[in-house]
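Practice problem: predict the structure.
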Amino acid sequence: MISIIVAYNNEKLLEEMLVKSLKNQTSKHFELIKVSAKENGFKSASETLNYGASLSKGDILLFIHQDVEFIDNDALEKIEQFCKIYDFGIAGFCGVKDSDKYEVYSSVKIGYDRRHAGQMINEVTDVLSLDECGLIVKKDEFSGFEDNGNTWHFYGVDYSLKSFTANKRILLFPINIYHLSPGWSLDYSYFDTLKVIARKYSNYNVIKTCMGFFRNNNFLSIYCEYRKSKLFLKKIIGI
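Answer:
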């Protein structure tokens, strides 16, 4: 059984998107665990999602955003099938490869215009790190999301790199989904967390994410502060 774990702060959006699309799934072999970080006093994604995982009864954990819709009605059946066939540390729907060229691969449509995110995949694909819009882990192998501070960013990248370091595969499943947000949650804490991840994986010359490749050197901290300043100015100017 799949345990679908979603952290939410907008119940109406959750019901109109994720829950509505789940009702159309041909497989009813799942449970939905909705966790409000605010109601539970959680301050990070890791706290919220690890709590949701502790409540789960399924053998497959699917961590997913509230503003996601499954396009195909047999999506959950496909996920279960892939989990039976493949051994992996973590899987998802959108990611980047361990390549010198920054290029996103996915089966995801994003934004109001429903444009495709990166290069389309039609088969299970090995990557280096994953976007957090959807993450899949077998429960008996789930080691929990690590505490990187009061942040909602990089938990998928962190778990991916942890798995990669342990010689476990990071996979993209060709599951067609629509994700409303194209990256609107970018905030100051994104760049603070990037610095945490960079220190944690100091042996990686580049931190590779779906939002970009970041050189892991002495200038990264300066770059992060620069990006935070730009966000501050945008907020002040109102753009």
